[in-house]
Amino acid sequence: MALHFEKAEFASRVARLTEKMKEEKLDALLLFAQESMYWLTGYDTFGYCFFQTLIVKSDGTMALITRSADLRQAKHTSVLDDIHIWVDRVNADPTLDLKNLLIEMDLLGTRIGVEYDTHGMTGRVARLLDAQLTTFGQIVDASYLVSRLRLIKSPTEIAYVERAAALADDALDAAIRLTKPGADEADILAAMQGAVFSGGGDYPANEFIIGSAADALLCRYKAGRRKLDANDQLTLEWAGTYAHYHAAMMRTIVIGEPMQRHREIYNACRETIEAIETVLKPGYTFGDVFDMHARIMDERGLTRHRLNACGYSLGARFSPSWMEHQMFHVGNPQPIEPNMSLFVHMIIADSDTGTAMTLGQTYLTTADAPRALSRHPLDFIGL
């Protein structure tokens, strides 16, 4: 089997989950998030674009219902033995197959949690599921039960995150080698992704972000490439990915002579991220991290140019996003604990002057100060 973890680690995860289920008085849990299935069993697929769910009972019994195309995928990549297939056909309703399986598993009339907040659960599936289960038992939203357990990384997971971070550094090295006046964004992007693949890494859960000139102010991928001018700015956001574990980075590279505004907002980004390092540790919350970000940026008159979040938890994720649920935004009470992998980013888009500046890297939290996982310093990059 293509397992990335020892079976004992999967067993430990199941035990942690069932303990939480008992605390929540859940008799069963329906997992629709692919990252939840991967974390719990090793099951690795992009087949979640179709209906599938992993049933977990409070005694640790598990059963997967999926399509025929993923039968061998599940057998080869996971510890699962009990795999059921729903059949593709006109007007198929796999939620009926699911209900019948739940009856077979003696779950009629029980309290069942459902992962609703995931890209593996479409609106149509949610409506079909609710129609089948409304009178079946007590159905509750348990979208974040597994997500919160995944926040704390095991030693093997940390090793994968560290490997992902090394690949992210390799990608930045590749970008810097090619970035100069006249360079094509397409070549830079290809070199960055190629560095990750050549190092044994995976596709990221979302596209790398690349944009120059006015596009440097964007913080999402878009189609279209251009060549760099003699004086230009290039914003990059990317992640090294290994066994689906991500370590993200973000930089704005200035080509030619930097404007004074570049230096001003870089200094604000650097000051803020260094201040955040003082609260990125146990005893503080995700909300505290954002408050530090907002306070410094606002003091420097950058309120209109900053974002309403400044990072998030990372881990093993599947497309369309490498972002976890837990983000650094106002009021988030999530405590910071040791062995979390957290991406902190500073993003300033000054549309008044057309100036962009970003600075971001992934940290591993410890019992005290966080450890930056990148070998690159946070220095201004001008080429």
Automatic annotation (TrEMBL):
Task: Tell me the superkingdom of the source.
Answer: Bacteria
UniProt cross-references to Gene3D superfamilies, sorted A to Z: Creatinase/methionine aminopeptidase superfamily, Creatinase/prolidase N-terminal domain
Residue ranges annotated for the Peptidase M24 domain, each copy included? 161-366
Protein name stated in the entry: Xaa-Pro dipeptidase
Q: Which residues cross the membrane?
A: none
Q: Where does the Creatinase N-terminal domain lie?
A: 13-152
Q: Which Pfam families match?
A: Creatinase_N, Peptidase_M24
